[in-house]
Amino acid sequence: MAPLRVGLVGLGEVAQSIHLPVLADQRDCWAIAGVFDVSPSLVALVTSEYAARAFDTAEALINSPDIDVVFVLSSDDTHSRFVRTAMQADKHILLEKPACLTVREIDELLALMPAYRKTLFVGYMRRYAPAYLAARDELPAHADITHVRIFDLISEGRHFLKKSRNILYPNDIDPALLARGARERDALIREVVGTDAPADLVRAYRGLTALSSHHISAMRGLIGEPKGVVAAHRTNGGANTSVTFDYGHFACLYDAVVDDLGLFDAMIEVRSNTRRVRIIYDTPYIRSLPTRLEVTEAGPLGPVTKSFGPLYGDAFSNELEIFHRHIAEGTKPLTDLADSRRDLALMAGIIERMKESGGDA
What we know:
Blueprint: E1 4-9, H1 13-25, E2 30-36, H2 40-50, E3 53-54, H3 58-63, E4 69-72, H4 79-88, E5 92-96, H5 103-110, E6 120-123, H6 130-135, E7 147-155, H7 158-164, H8 175-193, H9 199-209, H10 212-223, E8 228-235, E9 240-246, E10 251-259, E11 265-271, E12 275-281, E13 291-297, E14 304-311, H11 315-329, H12 337-357
Helix pairs in contact: 5-12, 8-9, 9-12, 10-12
């Protein structure tokens, strides 16, 4: 199979630090054929480094006969528009999370799926990390689970990238475009949180759809669908969230903390009465930092812990390899639009619980 010709819509932080280098590494599978961004300086940088063709508009890139696969890496408010165009152009699609900001947008795209014959893959890379994949074989039986705990201590990507990569953060984007995007994003968010929602609730939803979406998706992929949201609360101006998911005979507790300390500490822990399985993640912004898996069991002399790792396989590389396999084999990804709809529906449920509990604004 000849390398698939990739067009990237959006050349920001994640495109520069992750997607472009991985695509270049996997040159037997992909060819970086075209790029579009609203920043002229970003386009100039990327075309000079990767010899890709610059397109004047996202639509021109998507509809080009020289593009086989579209990577939608643009701002969240543009996702549904560009995905719709790519589906109608019959292109394979890698869509960065969140797939959209509202269930309504997802439902409108799902209505197009019966006529769509290509592969649409949503980029939830934590579900493709080596430790996560290995954990599925180590979990206790679902009926034996007594508790699940998920923790995200997150500092923004710039804390890590400024020490490891030379990322261009452009200052040449048309202010009118930025203002329009902000208005459109706010309107979509307020479909979920309410037109008169306080600023901390808006920020909480932005956090859920952004960095927290990885672990909400990973939770569902690992232990299945919760029955609902028992409780949810926001603090620190909406930057921090605490959520309790109802799984019937056990609860799953999720805590997210966002700060400027410059640390990243993320894990998923699943327990039974005699077994603990823990997945440990480092920041994804630096490629090939290891993930770890720890399995602890009760033994006659006390707890015995078996460690897997450090596992240096890159989750983003795994993700693109699996995406390519789905394209080649015509198979259905686990992380598709229907799967992402479940994430957004859960997030809407979290917001409803947050409205009940109030906030700190």
